[in-house]
Amino acid sequence: MIGVGSDHGGFELKGHIIEHLKSKGIEFKDFGVYNEDSVDYPDCAKPVCSAVLNGECECGILICGTGIGISMAANKFKGIRAALCGDVFSAKMAKEHNNANIICLGGRVTGSELAKMIVDTYLEATFQGGRHAERVKKIHEIENM
Ligand code: RB5
User: Fold this and answer.
1) 65 within ligand 1 shell (Cβ under 6 A)
2) pLDDT of res. 9
3) Among this protein's residues, is 49 annotated catalytic?
């Protein structure tokens, strides 16, 4: 199960991503928002991050206008590794090296076709572990400082 969420700036792209997931038969849960009324992106990050942290979703896709604010907010949740990706290489590395459990997109930055490729690449990639696992562990050690 993939958790999907956005603010108003990411609403339109969220729709495209949801249609794409549906077309591929990938299970998802849409955590909103459900219209383009102005909202605060930290509030939109929260339900998807909680669902990833409590195991309801194995990973998440968060979208705001740039992807910046929502990734900043998501990364404040202990245990979340949110990667803002605007290209396919970063999406692959976000999973292979960083084991990102959330991918973030900029709805006003990244076109829908590229965004779909980014999502596919992220979902199809596999964490490589090894030295990368050590580095990821060090990220979470920072949370306890
Ligand atoms: C909302 O206008 C916009 O600031 C938000 O979607 C996002 O881009 C913030 O980083």
Assistant:
1) yes
2) 98
3) no
Model confidence pLDDT, tens digit, residues 9-18: 999 999 999 9
Domain CATH code at residue 99: 3.40.1400.10
Q: Is 140 a catalytic residue?
A: no
Catalytic residue among 97, 104, 132, 140: 97
pLDDT of residue 30: 98
pLDDT in tens, 57-100: 999 999 999 999 999 999 999 999 999 999 999 999 999 999 99
Contact 110 CB / ligand 1 (< 6 Å): no
Which residues neighbour 144 within 8 Å (Cβ) at sequence distance 6 or greater?
none
Total domains in the chain come to 1
18 vs 2: CA distance, rounded Å: 10
Distance between CA atoms of residues 145 and 143, nearest Å: 6
Would you state the torsion angle of the CA atoms of residues 33, 93, 116, 65, taken in this order, to the nearest 10 degrees?
A: 40
In the set 44, 49, 57, 64, the catalytic residue is 64
Domain span holding position 9: 2-143
Q: Which residues of 9-39 are buried (b: 16+ CB within 10 A; e: fewer)?
A: bbbebbbbbbebbeeeeeebebbbbeeeeeb
